[in-house]
Structures are given as C-alpha cells and as structure tokens.
Specification:
93 residues; alpha+beta; 2 domains
Length: 93
C-alpha cells in the first residue's frame, strides 16, 4: 500500500510531499472463507475491499511498515511533514 501525503501552506506558497509504503502479505484463503466474506457484503465500501482493523489476522499474514497507513492515514508521516512548517500545529508533537 502506498499513500501520498501533500501539505500546502498557502501563505508561504510552500508544498511538502511524502510517500508512505507498507507491505501487506495476505493469507491463503479457502474458497469457502472468500464466499463467506463476500456474502457479508462489507467489502463494497473499502479501499482494497477489506479493512485490516476488521479482518486482521483472518486475512493478513504479515505487515511491514505503518499500520496506520493501511487503516487510512499515515499519521506519523503527516506529523513529520507538519514539523517542517515554521510554527506548524504539530511543531511540538
């Protein structure tokens, strides 16, 4: 999973960008397990058709990188960029 983060400070005309990459290895699932998941219908509103915080170990064998990136937003990367803005909201975070 790769997430791009872009922060723009209009008053200074400054833009910072970064990428967060997380590797997710899925378990081998039986056709029955796949059918049960699809029948439940929870996949339709998910990026990648799953939510790691809901399926967790049932689907995911291993994760290398930022868990928050897989859930939705790499908070650590956002804070890292915010610290680079003078007087930024997360300067002390």
């Amino acid at each position: 999973m790769i997430t791009a983060v872009v922060l723009y400070q209009k008053s200074a005309g400054r833009r910072l960008t970064a990428l967060e990459t997380t590797f997710v290895r899925f378990r081998t699932l039986s056709p029955e397990a796949i059918d049960r998941y699809l029948a439940a219908g929870g996949f339709a509103d998910k990026a990648g058709s799953y939510a790691i915080q809901e399926v967790g170990d049932a689907f995911v064998e291993s994760l290398k990188g930022d868990y928050d990136n897989v859930v939705g937003l790499p908070i650590g990367k956002v804070r890292e960029l915010l610290r680079k803005f003078p007087g930024g909201a997360a300067a002390g975070a």
